[in-house]
Amino acid sequence: MTDYRAPVKEMLFVLNELAGLEGLNALPGFEDATPDLAEAVLEEAALLAAEVIAPINSIGDQQGTRVENDAVVVPKEFHSAYQQFVAGGWPGIAQSVDGGGQGLPYLIGLAAEEMWQSACLAWSLCPMLSQGAVRAIEQHGDDRLRALFLEKMVSGEYTGTMNLTEPQAGSDLAAVRTQAVPDGDGYRVSGQKIFITWGDHDMTSNILHLVLARLPDAPDGVKGISLFAVPKRLMNTDGTDGEPNSVRPVSVEHKLGIHGSPTCVMAFEKAFGYLVGEPNNGLACMFTMMNHARLGVGLEGISVAERAYQQALAYAKDRVQGGIPGHKGRVTIIHHADVRRMLMMMKSTINAMRSVAYVAGAQLDHAHHNPDPAARSAAQARVELLTPVVKGWCTEMAQYLTSLAIQVHGGMGYVEETGVAQHFRDARITTIYEGTTGIQANDLVGRKLLRDGGQAFVTLIDDMRATAAECDDEALGRGVDDLAASVEWVKTNAPGDINAPGAASVNLLMLTGTVCGGWQLARAAQAARKRLADGSADKEFLEAKAATAAYYAQHIMPIAGAYRAAIEAGSESLMALTEDQF
């Protein structure tokens, strides 16, 4: 990211005007999290992204990773970037002070993380997963486990992984076969895990693997899964690294994108580990890490789309091609209406995605730190509702937006040397790992709508209606009506049609994301107009906010009606063919 100041400005606007950073600043422990501090943190994070991390993006793509002598080797440039990342104290900026972190809100960490993901998605996955592992150990680990690993993981001295998937158990975790047998004050874990992101590397001396496995007397299904912390190296009694544990990478996958991120097949061969949480309650413990990762992956969609947009914008301002009516001679392609269409689609949608994700991040901070139990409960309900939307909608839109970046480049976009194709390839995984879009959509409908009668949806819709009325925003009002009608249709039809929830789920997720995005951009335009009325000198930036919101309302929000029509069409045509007719 060479133009790091532009996204920082956008981020700070969202933090202050939409996500309510000042409200977080009033919470216990966040007193130092002022707008001025946030700006200073993000400026420094942006410099790290632009000068240290971004240059390794193409290197990782070209070199990839490999297994040598039962260990994964990553590009040497990744080592240097990680050492500077750790030296700057970045792994712990949003981790608790008790664990050795700096105690800033998750929201500020989220904004910093966006820039690192934009700079090099493959590299950024390592610290992103480690942050989730820290939260799982902090919330569910016992005193011994926290004493052994927490501070080292918060500092970045160690990293962490998430080991769920097995050859026969992808999204269906009930089929997990990895076994854990008690052995003294720990357990011996045996089995094979696949698709383990950053499952092994040589950037740190130790890696803590969080592994789902079954105890010998465990009941069948998900109720018999426990969580274990298995270090790459055993721990000496003085807390230093000891002998290698019996866990190793068998191979790394050869993938479409994120080549610099080692996706490992991991073998656990009676590896010593520690129980995390209660026996047979591992899935609940793992979801602490998984939900963090789902928000992080949704952010990845935003991050890669932002990098692709910046590259497309720079190319459009530089590439001379053709002419336009009323202008003598050839022009740069940004003057062509269709190129403007693509750039405005990218800019407005990225702004909408970022705003929804940051608002969700702020709600997570309130859920954990607000002293008012009612406020904590409301925030938790909101973040649970928005998590599958952030993960699913933002990553699905990233597929389209990174593809548009290639289109802006024309034929040069299809040539690897320009670098824009990498963003398209890297983004493709984001709709798949940490739960596919279909899984996120089923979660949205099954758990967040039908289970509680849609109360969280009702509250969200009420908030959006209030904004539409306050702003006199007809496009947002129609979108909210479409969402409300679709929610009611699913609630009404689900009891009589077992296929109705599944048939409607992805369309409802995309509808929810589209309308939430319009809601946040309406709020952004309102805040920009207020700043202008108050005499802000940043006229060009603030006027662009209103124009971007207007484009979204006129060109993107009408899609809400199409999603509603597809939902209300029901499941009949979707289920009409027999298996042999496909």
Can you summarize this structure?
The radius of gyration is 24 Å and the shape is globular. It is built from 18 helices and eleven strands. The two termini are 45 Å apart.
Which terms summarize this structure?
single chain; 582 residues; alpha+beta; Butyryl-CoA Dehydrogenase, subunit A, domain 3; seven-stranded mixed beta sheet; two-stranded antiparallel sheet; 57% helix
What does this molecule look like?
57% of the residues lie in helices and 12% in strands. Strands 3, 4, 5, 6, 7, 10 and 11 form a seven-stranded mixed β-sheet that branches. A two-stranded antiparallel sheet has the order 1-2. A two-stranded antiparallel sheet has the order 8-9. β8 and β9 form a beta hairpin. The two termini are 45 Å apart. The mean pLDDT is 96.
Tell me how many strands there are. Answer: 11
The helix-strand sequence is HHHHEEHHHHEEEEEEEEEHHHHHHHHHH
| Helix content, binned percent | 55-70%
The secondary structure category is alpha+beta
Unreliable stretches, pLDDT < 50, 5 or more residues?
Answer: none
Our measurement of the CA-to-CA distance between the termini, rounded to an integer number of angstroms, reads: 45 Å
CATH homologous group name of the domain at 285-434:
Butyryl-CoA Dehydrogenase, subunit A, domain 3
Return the CATH class of the domain at 285-434: Mainly Alpha
User: Mean pLDDT across all residues, rounded?
Assistant: 96
Question: Under the CATH scheme, which architecture of the domain at 285-434 would be assigned?
Answer: Up-down Bundle
Strand content: 5-15%
What's the story with the biggest beta sheet?
7 strands, mixed
